[in-house]
Amino acid sequence: MNSLLAKMRAKGIKSLAPSKTKIMVGMATCGIASGAELVYNALADEIKKQKLDIILSKTGCIGMCYREPLVDVIEPTHPRLTYSKVSPKDVTAILNQIGEGKKKDKKPYCRIDEENLIINEEKMSYLTSTLPDDMKVIPLMSEIDFYKKQVKIATRNCGFIDPGNIDEYIARGGYFSLQKILFGIEPEKVIDEVEGSGLRGRGGGGFPTGFKWRSCRNAPGEVKYVICNGDEGDPGAYMDRSIMEGDPHSVIEGMIIGAYAIGAQEGYIYVRDEYPLAVRALTEAVSQAREGGFLGKDIFNSGFSFDIKISKGSGAFVCGESTALMASLEGKAGEPRAKYVHTVEHGLWDQPSNLNNVETWANVPVIMSRGKDWFSQIGSKKSTGTKVFSLVGNVKNVGLIEIPMGTTLKEIVYDIGGGIPKGKKLKAVQTGGPSGGCIPEGLIDLPVGFDELTKAGSMMGSGGMIIMDENICMVDVARYFEEFLQGESCGKCVPCREGVRRMREILEDICNGKGRDGDIELLEDMSQAIIDGSLCALGSSAPNPVLSTIRYFRDEYNAHILEKRCPAGVCQELAHAE
Amino acid sequence: MSKTENMRKSIKAIVEKYHGEESSLIAILQDIQQEYNFLPKEALNLLSEETKMPLSRIYEVSTYYNSFSLTPRGRHVVQVCAGTACHIKGSPKLLSRVENELDIKCGETSEDLMFTLKDVRCLGCCSLAPVIKVDDHIYAYMTEDKIPEILESYRK
Amino acid sequence: MINLVIDNKKIQAEGGSTILQAAQNNGIKIPTLCYHEELTASGSCRLCSVEITKGKRTKIVTSCIYQVEEGLIVNTQSERVMNVRRLVLQLLMARCPESEVIQEIAEKVDVKPQTRFQLDEDKGKCILCRQCVKVCEEVVGVSAIGFSYRGADKVVGPPFMEPSQTCIGCGACAYVCPTGHIIMEDLGDERIIWGKHFKMAKCKVCGKLLAPEDQLKYISKTTGVPLDNLTTCVDCR
User: Looking at this predicted complex, what is its ipTM?
Assistant: First the structure.
């Protein structure tokens, strides 16, 4: 083992489970938005005031957004206790409960006794003595409904490490995959492993990752690039942000491995500018990786050199499309181009380029560590592994979940999500963002997978999953997405630039009581031509929200058009007309 | 030094930071906006002179991306999240209320240059929907009645 | 030479050529609008869309960009193609109701306007094909005009929609514009284009109007040919 890596690992282990009490506060963007910063400051003040010998640190999003702010207390030899919905006035009580034999009046939400690190099966024990009686009633995190069915691969470290501490990343198995590879696995073998795992792009396309890597490796040319697409634009999706903020090194290590396999010398991480914390976390992580010798010249004395640049987006959803993203990296307006010639052959500056999504990259170190056979038996046959979803909308347990492919929507909404609040009925599950569609309650037994969702008229997309109850108007949902797409269309091709806005105008009319008989058929007609005629995937998938809502909720459209009535009671103009 | 000379000096420094590379145009514009709170026409002209990049190209990129503003922005930027989760929890009503309070439409800046109002998709705080952001601060579980107070706190 | 089939006709085409070129060289007509022989294809109007079959897969591509491949089967009149063509023309007729060129193409392929689309009044005849921008950038080398904004708000013109400092009044943009959106007026010894007035240079022998002075100055600067030589018309040399 590389001696520097060993040293950093030892330092990281001490940092993760120190010999004195450690408190971690969930400080991802949503944590801060819910008030975690105030809690953190209150803790810092109180610790200072009482002169307590406690380590205070920050961590990323563990996914339980519905219980934020989250505070974890790790006393040596004791389980890790998670307190939820913490406010500054709870701080004194929490601090007073620390110490042998202290009564826990403020109840923790859950506890972790030990973890089996998914990347290397190593055991990390928090509890190293007998479990105190008063902690026996606190449920294990792995047993609570929200986590029971989750398998955290891409989000393995989010909420468990201080993202600004590379030693902690290493202590949890980070950079060992890279070391293993650079010390004795041929690039072709790396690609074999990724291909054999069945990993498919997690950004929405679902394209086989290993196949893409191989095509790029085989493409003629000396100069090659690997790119990370961090332009998570789907409204309602924040999985990538959590990974970039909470575990930036998982992306970096994935990219280094990919670059080695493909033969790339330079990498870019393109992050949307609406994610300043992610930009900061990645920038710091890249700098630490360089210091540690994981990036730069002659990594691990292997002869392989590679470095990464961070590039900020500037507010354009279309830049999530790979050719538009590359145009943006080149300093141009982010407009897509025809993909008749693939970007793996002619991409960034016309050179072979391999672009993958954040979550895709984050999976790579684990695949290389555990092997393709292990990975491919998780999930389903054609959609292996796990998928991170942002479970949001009209559902009780709103947050980020990572589940094996093949889990059904019913399990997600009811078992993990806790069902619909306020006793309302489930109406639809929206997946795939503006490129996706709505799956009605009747198809709730659908297992989650690339092909299954596409067949049902939606798509996997990047992982946004919006739960909609009976009070949501599906025509308004279609109108909402077309309005969004109209504003984000680059304007290059006629079907998208002109077609999407005309569809939106018609939907606007329908929602305002000005719909006409024949509008549904017209929308269906236009949809097919827009799908076929558009230059890029933004345009060609733009009709999906319209087609899927017409497919499953045609009667709602009819009510708006023929009866001038909005069954869900949402469309204002129609509500007034009654 | 005249205002123009000052501006030229700072543009030169920004260009040098990126080695005058054309591919860094977006980053250069981000830095210019960071300094001047928007992209002044004069700055773009000077940028064209300093880099020899055609003004038409600079103008295309400046107008293409949502984050750039060619008109002075308010001291505070109010962003109402219009993401899907926020939308179904009533963000359109929030937006209308802010529009009324500030007497401007989304995308505009108030006359006293205090506030610029934008909608954004999305801030990724879906568990706290509906959400608005003023400068760097995110306000969770928003309701219409909270808006006047929040805006007022920035006027002080 | 590459062998392919277009509309059931066996065709041979040069490697590197596009389906459109192969079709045109073999008397097969595919409607185009934004395509210009002398400039790189935009692929923006989508009117030249065709249906291709490769092995088991079928898809719609723009023939102006897609290069010929061995064994490719092309259909320029399939139902999917006709649908795309129809929608594109209907959308363009709604966007540019004043454009005779678009109306003529629509009539030729028997496409009627879609009355459900409200007619635009502010787009002129511009279909945003980008050929004017390209010719100014790639051929003339001045980049006086460009696109701005995005989506349906996209518009072409000089930066800030103000008379351009760098425009030389050559009129190449007006020449390549497929719909005649760009207006170049020659009035007396003045030319007006994109809101800028240009003084026309006269032949110093016969007094015939030649080209804007700015254009001749630019040509002299870039080619090294003395300005004097450029201010005598061809007939008088």
Answer: 0.96
